[in-house]
Design brief:
Elements: E1 11-14, H1 22-27, E2 44-48, E3 51-61, E4 64-72
Antiparallel strand pairs: 1-2, 2-3, 3-4
InterPro entries: FliN-like_C, FliN/MopA/SpaO, FliN_T3SS_HrcQb, SpoA-like_sf
Domain Flagellar motor switch protein FliN-like C-terminal: 5-73
GO cellular component, one term: plasma membrane
């Protein structure tokens, strides 16, 4: 039986979003800047397997970048159908 230590999840951190026409994207080159829709002190969104689970702030860890969690988002319980085929 697998333990929780063996389970891998994909963590993504989203700083912000932008919308632009394809022709503008195709003209971008090295050094181009994409203007995001957030302020510099806004929380980033933290996703686990494409599900929003927390918010956080970007922090510098020496030469690396990290995220400090500021809020864990509660998920409403999922409704699962009752089993009628015997014990679990």
């Amino acid at each position: 039986m697998a333990t929780f230590d063996d389970i891998k999840i994909d963590i993504s951190v989203v700083l912000g979003a932008a919308e632009m026409p394809v022709h503008q994207l195709l003209r971008m080159g090295r050094g181009a800047v994409i203007d995001l829709d957030v302020a510099e002190d806004a929380d980033v969104m933290i996703y686990a397997n494409n599900t929003l689970v927390a918010k956080g702030q970007v922090v510098l860890l020496g030469e690396k970048i990290g995220v400090s969690i500021t809020e864990v988002l509660m998920r409403r319980p999922e409704t699962r159908p009752m089993r009628t085929d015997g014990p679990l």
